Each structure stands twice: as structure tokens, then as C-alpha cells.
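Box 4.2: Ligand-aware structure prediction
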Amino acid sequence: MSKIALIFGITGQDGSYLSKFLLKKNYVVHGVKRRSSSLNTARIDSIYQEPFVKKKKLILHYGDVSDSNSVFSIIKNTKPDEIYNFAAQSHVAVSFEIPEYTTNTDAMGTLRILEAILKINKKIKFYQAGSSEMFGKVMQIPQTEKTPFYPRSPYGVAKLYSHWITINYRESYNLFASNGILFNHESPLRGETFVTKKIVQGLCRIKFGKQKKLYLGNLYSKRDWGHAEDYVEAIWKILQVRKPDDFVICTGKQYTIKNFLDITAKKLGIILKWRGKGLNEKAYNLDNKPIVEIKKKYFRPSEVDKLVGDYTKAKKILNWKPKHNLSSLIDDMINHEINLLKNDK
Ligand code: NAP
Ligand code: F7E
């Protein structure tokens, strides 16, 4: 019989990759989407099934993790074997502007799901989408499952609550509840306001003459970027092992934002010359026109300067390692963008 998965946050980047992955594994996938004034299901359009289809494999439900009633009734009605909690206000910079909303969704949302599991069926396996942002001002390089946390944003703090409440429910009530501690992962489906997508989209549009300039913030923070397609496989594996546990998922390689931008520009054949410092730093094209500029508004009140993980435990226990590297990730993102631009009449 098919297993049943329930995904909170199915309309996001990871929700869409995981639902495609699970459908290929013959799961029945239920997904929770928020009501919005315009359609928010573009990322899962390719797998959407009309309501009249018999024996549907992908079923969507309106709900919100800030609403205990919808969380409870969706879990009760769908009877999942596995729940994946991706629902979050996932933008770190935005979490400084709406910290209370971020906490309600990213911290309390997890508690609401765990409480519902406890009341409905303690056998449901639970995955919590934890983040390398919990390491924040890093206490150790590289970061492992044993590295102490030091979050630097309301987002990081809220995710840390979710991390510990997941462990607490596992230990207190014997739930199969596991945390992924995922480092940045990107893809063609990444939200437009995250830095990798913003850079790839911006430079592709500049190349096609559709945009003049790209405005960014801190070019010198360092990230460990992987591909979402690889990471959803790790997420699934986390719920397939014998014991619930916590796992760092990363590539072990670190680059600055500027490195990412330079590599992307080179792949697109855009020749850049950097001049100036701080807020006056600019990248000029061959015609000596500035095409990348720095704006104060994109800096955060406190920054996570450097992140790089160690996936030894995931390799050993999950038999997982990333298939993509930074270059193939950027190629995938560029190809997607160029195809869109070529089809844009
Ligand atoms: P994403 O693209 O921003 O997707 C977030 C999803 O959560 C969307 O489907 C969103 O719905 C939904 N959502 C937001 N608020 C909600 C609420 N109150 N109730 C129900 N659903 C809600 O994020 P992602 O990149 O796929 O990441 C998935 C999860 O992993 C998130 O929890 C994120 O914090 C975490 N994470 C991400 C990374 C990364 O690098 N991508 C790394 C570590 C951890 P809408 O589509 O309607 O907005
Ligand atoms: O920023 C710098 C910015 O917003 C990366 C989320 O998925 O990964 C993500 O969080 C870096 C930061 O990702 C711009 O200051 C410069 O240092 O792409 P980002 P993030 O903050 O690392 C973690 C693991 C998550 O869990 C989160 O959900 O890039 N940066 N200029 C910029 N960042 C943005 N967004 N926009 C800029 O213009």
C-alpha cells in the first residue's frame, strides 16, 4: 500500500521538490497551502491534479500553521505516515521586520503540529526543517550536529525553538521526530528575494537587456550552498532510518556572495571590474557602466558572517552525499532563467 505524506509548506521551494520526489516513490502526497488573493501554487503546477481525477496522488488542503484547528483537522483527516514541516516565514532579513509573525509561524507552528501528532497518532513520523541559521555567530568551524548554537535573527531564534521542542517531544513522548539542520540550498525554484536567485535572475536579465542594475547588500558573508533537489532526498532519508535523530545537511564548501556573483557573471560571459569599497563598491561592465551596486537597505541588523557544515554523520547513517556542486547548481539556475527569458515575448 502507498505511504501517505503530509507536507506543510508544499508551495515553497522544498515542498515542491519533495512532493515530486515522493510521488516518484509512489506516496500519496497531501499538501497544506495558505489561502492567498492570487494563485500561490506555481511551483507545483507540473504535478497538480484536477479535483475530479480519481485516485488522486496529490491532494491540497487549505490551512495555516498559525491556526491550531486547521493543523489538527488536516492531520486527523489525512492520516499521514509522515509529516514534513516546511511551513515558515523563511526570509532572515524579513524576520527582523516581522519578528512576532515569524515566531508564531516558525516556532509555534511546529509546536502545534507536534501537539496534534501527540493527540491523533503517536506513530506519525515528523520532520522539522531546521536551519544552519541556528549556528549564527559560529562557535566552531565546520559546524556539526554537536556545535553549540548562537542564532543571530528572529528567524534563527524561532528555528532554534522548533529544534528543541522537536527533541523534547521525541524524548518526552517517544515520538519519531527528527530535525534536519539544513545549510542554504537553492534551485531554479528559489524565491526571488534570496541572494542566489536575485543574482542569477538579475544578471540574466541584464544580459538580455531587460534590467540595468542589480542592487545587493553584504558581499562578504560566506555560505555553504547546495541544491534543493539533493537536500530533499536527505530529508526523506532522515525519516526512513531506524531511530529518530538530528542531521546536518550541507556540501562542506564555502563561498562569499561576491564569489557566487563572479562565477555567475563569468558563465554568462559578462566581464566585470570591481572598484570602490563599502557602500561605494560597484561592478562595472566593459562599457564602464556600473551594473552591480551596494545598498544599505539590504544589510541586516546582525549578520551571519560565515557558515560551512560537515555532513559526516549524514554520510555514515543516511548514506547521503550531495550530487551537485556550486557550478552545476548555478548552471541549473541559469538555464532555467534563460529559458524563461527566451520564451518571454
Ligand atoms: P519557502 O520557499 O519560503 O517555503 C516556505 C513555505 O511555507 C511556503 O509554502 C509558504 O507558503 C509556507 N508558509 C509560510 N507561512 C506559513 C504558515 N503560516 N502556514 C502554512 N504555511 C506557511 O522555503 P524553502 O526554501 O522551501 O524552505 C523550506 C523550509 O526549510 C522552511 O521552513 C525554511 O525555513 C527551512 N530552511 C530552508 C533552507 C534553504 O536554504 N532553503 C535552509 C534551512 C532551512 P506560501 O507559498 O503561501 O508563501
Ligand atoms: O542571504 C547576503 C545576506 O537571504 C544570504 C534562507 O533560506 O538560508 C537562507 O537564509 C547572504 C546573507 O539567505 C543580499 O546578508 C547580500 O549574508 O540568500 P539569503 P540566508 O539569510 O542565508 C538559511 C539556511 C535559511 O534557513 C533561510 O530560510 O547574502 N546578501 N545582498 C543578500 N541577501 C539577500 N536576501 N538579498 C540581497 O540583496
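In the box above, the bound molecule is NAP. DSSP finds ten helices and 15 strands in the chain.
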